[in-house]
Amino acid sequence: MDHQENRQFRLARRPVGHVKREDFEFRTDPARAPEAGEIMVAVEYISLDPAMRGWMNEGKSYIRPVGLGEVMRAGALGTILQSKAEGFSTGDVVTGALGVQSIATIAAKDCTKIDPALAPKPLFLSALGMPGMTAYFGLLAVGEPKPGETIVVSGAAGAVGALVGQIGKIKGCHVVGIAGGAEKCRYIVDELGFDAAIDYKSEKIPARLRETCPEGIDVYFDNVGGQILDDCLAQINLRARIVICGAISQYNNTTPVKGPANYLSLLVNRARMQGMIVFDYADRYAEGAKEMASWLREGRLKSREDIVEGLETFPDTLGRLFTGENFGKLMLKV
Amino acid sequence: MDHQENRQFRLARRPVGHVKREDFEFRTDPARAPEAGEIMVAVEYISLDPAMRGWMNEGKSYIRPVGLGEVMRAGALGTILQSKAEGFSTGDVVTGALGVQSIATIAAKDCTKIDPALAPKPLFLSALGMPGMTAYFGLLAVGEPKPGETIVVSGAAGAVGALVGQIGKIKGCHVVGIAGGAEKCRYIVDELGFDAAIDYKSEKIPARLRETCPEGIDVYFDNVGGQILDDCLAQINLRARIVICGAISQYNNTTPVKGPANYLSLLVNRARMQGMIVFDYADRYAEGAKEMASWLREGRLKSREDIVEGLETFPDTLGRLFTGENFGKLMLKV
After folding, report:
1. Domains in chain B, please, with CATH?
2. Does the keyword Thylakoid apply (chains A, B) (predicted)?
3. Is B273's CB within 8 Å of A257's CB?
């Protein structure tokens, strides 16, 4: 075990606009043996998330940027090869910020042991992982939907959006999803049970919002920002809640972010727009995961993973998030 | 009393950009005698507010637009000349939406009797009226400041802003005001007790915010919108609250409203931006006015009125709100 190879992507420069392969160094180093309190993990699945684009930028954010020369940060799941940490044994399966690499040596306290008998491993990076917790707490704790209200969610076929809509249906709401392309729109209505879908690639969003939300919008769960946020702001109800979870349309901007010109709709409607970061709910993950797992078991919640094989495909696979090519929770199988 | 003359401003056309005299018809009609449930009021003071600009525009808002040909809506104070309503007598002083006219005939149920022995009449249109209630509930119920936090307020020498800052000081906060010109800046610091002032006409706001808010911004009370909102968004703290009370910089736009390009600071900081309309707190006005009146009596709260004589000056006097010429709560003395 002493000379295992660790294939890894390190951030070589700060990307401008869309991420390119040259923004990273793909190299192989000897894996580092664990020290006291650490574990060495064979990484199996790496979660690819829109937020990773922000972590590559310099500047103050909710988490420190990935440093130049560092292994790219990513949530991942793997099996312990060696442990120097109490309570963690070889063969245990863990999740944590293992990074875009094949072997991670990391403090055990920063990882969470999971029980792979409970669900297929990829689910622990989707419905039972960060996207699941983001959807659960973002919708329920920030959006505060009430039965009978209308929820609109963008990025509706994505990892978070698909769960937001399904949780909304479980809570008795009228749910409309905005997604790109006929296949995704069909999927969220026919397979996930959304009440309606709007195809932002081929339909006029304002007119379709009026059709599909005849009673206006009470909760808008925003994953995309840009013009769609503005279109939704124009049709919110009194005391509406807008959950700002992401702004994928703006992450690769090389020009200034487009602010929501219709923000004064918040004033007219006494509505609120509130940002949400899943890490704030860490002390409630167990509660969220328990309820999500029971909905999965009961068949009330479906989770779709989009799994790409090959660590070496990382930069190109990540790029699929921003072109709308992925369908379901995107992850790499190492 | 049968042929009293009512001088009045009626909305003649929908203004484009800044309000012009030609947007109104100034005419004299016989005053209408009150019918059952109505009172006829000699209007003494008319409140001039930024919100009036919005009421002149067509389209859905929190209140119906003033119709073409109708007397311009305005809050005002006057003395009853004739009453056909129980509980209201000749000589009683009332406030209500009496309009921009010298004599109003109006349903008594839409007016509030006030006790002119408690405070000078103009105060019932400022600290004890809508601006006072806006400041009180906007800051305390929406902004939710905690002692030791930093509050920034724009339009800080205006009717609402000056009260917001003083209430913030009473609540134990660090308070910074943004106002236009050295005289207003001196006033809010030296006379009202703000901790610091930023002159948006001569100073660089981002640098001055860093200097005057070394611990960041916890509550931003926005009366102006535009670039100042963006500058404040860039310096908010975790879980900051942004109260959207107005956007006077945008009310006369003939181009699209400038959306806050830094709105993703809400995401990074898990902050919220929430609109506020004073009418929503109508059932708590008595509570707010009681506390404001006691602070006024104790000398902890100062109110400044900017009273212009002459109903006929209405369009020009209203325009002073948008050029920053007024200083204190602007009103007309009929």
Report:
1. 5-126+304-333 (3.90.180.10), 130-279 (3.40.50.720)
2. no
3. no
